[in-house]
Amino acid sequence: MLKATYRLPDLPPPGEVETPAVLRALADAHRHLAELKGRASSIPNQAILIDSLALQEAKASSEIENIVTTQDELFRASLFMEGPGSPAAKEVASYRDALKCGFDRLRRNHGLLANNTIIEMFHVLKRTDEGFRATPGTALKNEATGAIVCVPPQNGEEILAHMTALERFINDDEASPLDPLVKMALIHHQFESIHPFSDGNGRIGRIINVLYLTRVGLLDIPILYLSRYVNAHKADYYRLLQAVRDDGAWEPWLLYILGAVSTTSRQTLELIEGMRGLMVDYKRGLREHPSVRYSQDLLNNLFRHPYTRIEYVQADLGVTRQTAAKHLDQLAEAGFVEKHQHGRNNYYINAPLIELFMRVSEG
User: Which of 2, 165, 217, 227 could form an S-S bond across to 60 if both were Cys, CB 3.0 to 4.6 Å?
Assistant: First the structure.
């Protein structure tokens, strides 16, 4: 028997949410986020950051839902989605595709983050044509004990009404004077409490976070991913989500999210600075090596695709398959990439970049 359905608050919620403690945390979060936005522009090809960091986020976000894969499985799955491989890695790669789908739709819709976009991301993530839930019976449970902690809206019409109101709150910048980072935290809580899909709500909710930051101009591209922070403070994440539902305790939830923004901004900045340094080293090494033909497009390929293959180089450089294979074999012989085989296909790994991902993710 389900408990009483959670009564979702209107947005913005009543009362003061931008308390003195929240305002102090906001100043810190905005400072770090602005630095990240500025430094990200120093990478000449923004697709490098979108593609490489999106997979890191996909891995971390999926681990929150106990979908665990290794870096190697993840990158190989993104190379060979059609072949045999880890189901978890393929689901993680689908998360990356859902995120990129959402960002593409956001740009096409001139910054409108609509429910249609959210549903389309769900379709990509879960490889389904389902929409918002229409069948009752969903309950949110404590992961450790299995006890029901919250019953989201059950009726399909009610779910649609709540998502329509949330869509309006996301996209109406004039209706509320709240800081956009506070709004992001409110949006995330409301979406998770509506729980509009049969599965994948946590992952879609975390994609909405970063898309909202790009929608309001705090980032140019979606590169701030909070999932690693949530993984490191998972018990607090669920406890504070529930404390808002039980007691209206918005301040601790907002401070948690703002702390996540500050910490993750610094970590992402470290990763970007590391990538920039590696690109400088590779550029110098490629130019100086007698048997390797340097091009900026080739350098970009090695960082946009830490695991690359002949077809990627062929497309990025506009060369024949034979020429692309020659480029990659020369790079492997010169020690810039490691050559591996998957069935009949070769692939090539930028090992220093993978080591950087591992070092920052474990730091």
Answer: 227
Considering Cα of 61, then 271, then 255, then 175, what sign does the dihedral take? negative
Give the model confidence (pLDDT) of 85-99 as tens digits: 567 777 888 888 999
Tokens of 19: 């308390």
Give 186-244 pLDDT, tens digit per residue.
999 999 999 999 999 999 999 999 999 999 999 999 999 899 899 999 999 999 999 99
The residue type of 183 is: K
Pick the closest to residue 271 from 342, 147, 355, 209 (CA basis). Answer: 355
58 phi, psi to nearest 5 deg: -60, -40
Q: Work out whether strand 345-349 and strand 338-342 pair parallel, antiparallel, or are unpaired.
A: antiparallel
For tokens 């913005």, name the residue: 12
pTM for this predicted structure? 0.91
Residue in 130, 135, 141, 167 with CA at minimum distance from that of residue 154: 135
Cα dist from 184 to 173, 174, 199, 212, 254, whole Å = 12, 15, 21, 7, 9
Provide the b/e sequence for 264-293 (b: ≥16 CB within 10 Å).
bbebbbebbebbbebbeebeeebeebeebe
Distance CA 55, CA 64 (A): 15
H or E stretch covering 144: none
Residues facing 257 on adjacent strands: none
Whether 29 and 262 have beta carbons less than 8 Å apart is answered as yes
Cβ proximity of 328 and 308 under 8 Å:
yes
Cα–Cα distance, 122 to 124 (Å, whole number): 5
With 0-12 CB in 10 A as exposed, 13-18 as middle and 19+ as buried, what is 27? exposed
